[in-house]
Amino acid sequence: MGTDARILARHRHRCHAGAAMAIDDGAPSGRMPWYRWYVADHALVLRSWPPIARLAYRELADAQWVDGVVPADPRELRRLVPGITKRQWDAAWPYIERTFTAHPMSAEARRCAWIDELRSAAISSSDARTRAAKAAANSRWGNDSSE
User: Fold this and answer.
1) Could you tell me which of 4, 67, 98, 106 has the fewest CB atoms within 10 Å of its CB?
2) How many domains does the chain fold into?
3) Residues 6+ apart with CB under 8 A from 60
4) For 65-122, how does the pLDDT look when each residue is reduced to its tens digit (9 = 90+)?
């Protein structure tokens, strides 16, 4: 299944108000439909970038949040930024290349270090909240809620 199809499959369900709800498909990102965006921190770095590089950065950050990593191949990365032309990508690439570095565990992937850190913390927090909720349910209702 392609990246676009995975993203659509995870986010196809809507709640009664129409807001997207992530589907828990077993992948950690299924429990994490959002992430923190530190505007002031990003503005310090991104403000000096060309607008197309900022767009590509945000699209790729979102893709990494959903999938854990992004592809190593610049052509595949470009496909994750809808509507960007080759000329625009060539202008953005030097900024993207230094931000989304080679993944230490896979030659076929890149990653942005701060997204990795946020994602790991979010997974840990989500897992801790899940364990606490199951323990509270077990305590209240006297049954094993882990089934």
Assistant:
1) 98
2) 1
3) 70, 77, 80, 81, 96, 100, 112
4) 888 899 999 999 999 999 999 999 999 999 999 999 998 888 999 998 888 888 877 7
- Domain assignment of residue 89, yes or no: yes
The structure tokens listed for 94 are 């030097």
Q: Is residue 16 part of a domain?
A: no
Residue 34: strand, helix, or coil = coil
∠ CA 12-100-79, rounded to 5°: 45
Task: Assess if residue 114 is contained within a domain.
Answer: yes
Residue type for position 78 = R
Which residues sit opposite 101 in a β-bridge? Answer: 111
113 three-state secondary structure: helix
Does 102 reside within a domain?
yes
CB atoms within 10 A of CB 21: 13
Domain carrying residue 97: 36-141
